[in-house]
What does this fold into?
Amino acid sequence: MELKVALHNIIKAHTTFPYTSSGTDVWDILKLSDRDPANPANVILFYTGWSVNAAQEYANGAGWNREHVWAKSHGPFSEDVKGPGTDCHALRPCDVSVNSARNNRHFDYGDFEYLDGIDKVPTGCKTSSARDVWEPRDVEKGDVARMIFYMATRYEGGDGFPDLEVVDYFPASSAEPKHAFFTTLMEWNKIDTVDSFEINRNNVVYSYQKNRNPFVDHPEFIDLIWGPPVIVENLLPQIANISYSPSIPTSSDILRFTADASDTDGTVQSVRLYWGLSADNLLNYSEMVFVDNEYTASLSPQTAGSEIFFAIEAFDNDDAKSTSEVQNFSIGSVNTSISTVGNPGFIYPNPASSTIRVEHKPSESVNICTSSGKILIQTRDNTIDIAHLSKGLYLVQIVDEAGRTKKSGKIIKE
It folds into this structure.
């Protein structure tokens, strides 16, 4: 980290300018740093590459505004703070609604393209409904990385400003002075190299602030400081014995989730339950509480017929994170038929060693699940091969076309 300290000392005493004023301000600097080479009256908007009239500025929302690439809330700091709030090395002209869509999302790969406005204009950027992330266009991925690493080098907490850090996980609070995702930004620095536009804007900002983004001049410094990320599996938190109860829940049941978490090189700092109504939409989460040597969390009763998907995340004292596989189960009606082991009625033989017969309608399907609800077999057949399953207790669910559990029972695999 000696190089990082040396660079910080070089760039920390920069000249600051107000965000908005009658004199030289951030608007004026960005009009020059991000000027369209093909049309000097315009600026190039970040994230989209659109060229718009520079002089109009905000224009009551009809013009452009200024994007804090290091989101203001991840500090937090405001644009009134002459420092991180007005540092033009990490401020870019941006379309107003695109800026709003990015909001304070962390940088990582998205799932689908963000289409802007009521006309659904393609932007080339991607986002996600399941994760709070934003993916810029390929031609700007490196720009983002070098701006984020600049901020983490310039602002070290010693001058009254927040100590900004790049991390590889979602911070517990958006107000923490941390931005993600480290591994992705390291990769983006390599795949999108410095171009002439980026070099020119570094020179323009330097002419005002009297400091440079050293990672535009020397992108290789990022690897020299932070190095390639090293992930050692056995040093990550370990998650085991995930379960939920009741094993066949109905719409009147409070759901209880439990898990074990440990860490070989430190302590477990926190464990979270993430859940939602689809595997790619685990937007809800609860902090799990350590009780009786296990972590536990509870959810209120859920709607009959709904499918609950969940995963467990554990963080250790080094901020390393592990995430379990996504599991799922169905919520039955209060009057769902629950059979007992030994004679579930619609399942035979029971116990069984190789095949079982499950009586159900042709339109229905059968799930064979672990005791924790993880689906191992899903079929419409009446005769089901279970020879490959380990010995033990399994759940059997008959599910209709709408995904509702119509009947449930248990079998013993001998």
In short: The domain at 337-413 is CATH 2.60.40.10 (Immunoglobulin-like). Residues 141-154 form the longest helix (14 residues). The two ends are 59 Å apart (CA to CA). Residues 336-343 have pLDDT under 50 and may be disordered.
